[in-house]
Every structure is written in structure tokens, then in C-alpha cells.
Amino acid sequence: MEEFLRLQIAWARRRQEALVAEWRATGVLPAEPPDLNTVLRPRLDEVGRELLAAAFLTAGEEPPALSDPWARLAGIAGLAPAELRALKAARGALRRTGTATLAGLRRVGVLRVGTTGDYAPFSSDAGGVLRGLDIELARELAGALGLQPVFVPTSWPGLMADLRAHRFDLALSGITVTAERAREAAFSIAYLQDGKTAIARRADAPRFGSLAAIDQTGVRVIVNPGGTNERFVREHLRRAEILLHPDNRTIFAALAEGAADVMFTDGIEVRLQSRRDPRLGGSLAEPLTRAGKAVLLPRDAEWRGAVDAWLEPLVASGAVAERLERALAEAAGEKRL
After folding, report:
1. What's the CATH fold of domain 102-193+298-331?
2. pTM (2 decimals)?
3. Which of 122, 131, 169, 165 is nearest to 149 (CA)?
4. Which positions of the chain have pLDDT values less than 50?
5. Separation between Cα atoms, residue 113 and residue 169, nearest integer Å
6. Superfamily for domain range 196-289
7. Which of 73, 106, 259, 330 is a Cys-bridge partner for 254, taking CB atoms 3.0 to 4.6 Å apart?
8. What is the domain partition of the chain in residue ranges?
């Protein structure tokens, strides 16, 4: 932070000196300046808040209201490219050492939410518009805390690395609580319970009514890499062929079209995909595992407590379960009366 502020002060002094030199050389004085107390100081305070918020956002993902101050700085006459690079480097160091604390978030005024955008009905990106249960929850949480939500793209293979790099303050994307993730992160209370089950082409589903029936030579199991689906198949399958499919947005179409025989995923996703595509259907009577969906957080007791305090009434009242059904219907393209 010290280096970041030092560079800003040096820039401001340089600009002031350049303006004074220009006025002396031309003999043309500026117009009557705005009042210091009623106009300039409030505006300087506003710009300071904008710059502080921009400093903590991930590069390339600032909304216009927060990236504009950087554009204005870059456009200052006489600004050397090396100085701009130095300030960006200082900002990057600031971001890498930052972490989410409730007091810090309130000072900045921004809540960075990591989300994959590929897991309906929790988080889906349709033409740049994020939708889903977890997107709705993130916006509501930010509003309850008086913060502006900013969504930061992440991925299942990179989720924990992005958390370690402080790219977001929390992640909401239908994230399953696992012991591996809990070793280096915190979780909120679970807002939903779910488990791994299987989905296949509806005509073939009777063939795959158990894990043993699926784990046979010649059976092709398709899986998206990097998350709990891949971990499940690696741990439980010994004979079936495992096919990695990198795009979670197209994996179910590939299954329906015959690129594989079965996929293991969460029960909620099986419900959704069976409603979206009549060619697909669940093949197991009961889930094979049970686990919670929760908010992924850095380790900070006060921050976790604030999230839990907001979330607990929504879970207890059944509001989250009700919103899930609405999100399922919307993601499936169904109209609800």
C-alpha cells in the first residue's frame, strides 16, 4: 500500500508543477478555481474511494465506474509509460497481499464474487449475462452489506488457486464442500444438500442402475475436469473408460448425442438436464454420496460469521429451496405461474 500511495502522490506533485510552469510561461492564469471545501475536497474524496476500490479489483475486470480513474490517470499529459507500469505493478502487489476482511470490504465498497458461469441452475453465463441461484444470492448478500458486487470469472480447475491468489472475496457457483477444499479455505453453512448420481440417455438408463453396472469394461463415462465430478470417477471407477470433456456447457449435449454412455454429477444438475433434454434421464434410484453446497471463503472468522448470519435465516425459512426451484425452472426454459 505504501508504494502504491507514494506513486500516486508523486504523480500529483508532478502534474501540479507542470501546470504552474505552464501558467508562468504563458502568462495565462486559469479561471477562478472551484471552492476548495464545497467542491474540490468532496470530489477528491470520491476519486480516492474509486481508486481504492479499483486497486482491489482483479485486473481487466473493473466495471467502468471503477476503471475510469485509471484511464484518467493514464491520460495525464507528460505521464511516462514507465510510471504507469510502476503504478500497475504496485497495484498488483497490493492485490496479491490483500485478503477479505469485513472492515476492509466496507472501506473498499466492493464485493468480488468468484463464479464459473457454467453450472446452471447456480451460475450460468448467457451472452455475458450471469443468471442463477448463486448469482441472486451473491447480489443479495452484497446489498445486505452495503457493497457493490463484482463477478470474477473462475474455473473448476483453478478455483482454489484463484482463492489463494486473492482474486475474489468469496466464491458462489454451486460449490460442494469437500475435505480437500476445507484444508485451505473456509465454508459458510451449507445452503443446500446434494449428492453424486448418474445421468444417461433415457433409453439406456435401465442398464446403468448401480455403480457396479456402470463400472464395466466398454462403458464410457464422460466428465468435466477439475471438480468433484472428476474426483468421484477417479476414486470409484476401475474398469469403465473415463473421457474428459473440457467444456461444462456442452458436456450434456455430447452425452445425449452418443459421445459417452454415462456421466456422474450432482442430483440437482441431473434434474435440470433431464428437464432440458428429454433424451436424458437419471439412472440411479438414490444418490451415491451426500454433501453440502456452501459459500467458499478465505479463512477469516469475522467474515465467515457475517456471511453465516445473513445466510442462516434464508436457509431456515425455506427461501433458498424455493429459489432453487425457480432457478431450475428458469434454467430449463419453463414458465412458472
Report:
1. D-Maltodextrin-Binding Protein; domain 2 (3.40.190)
2. 0.72
3. 169
4. 58-68, 77, 335-337
5. 6
6. Periplasmic binding protein-like II (3.40.190.10)
7. 259
8. 2-97, 102-193+298-331, 196-289
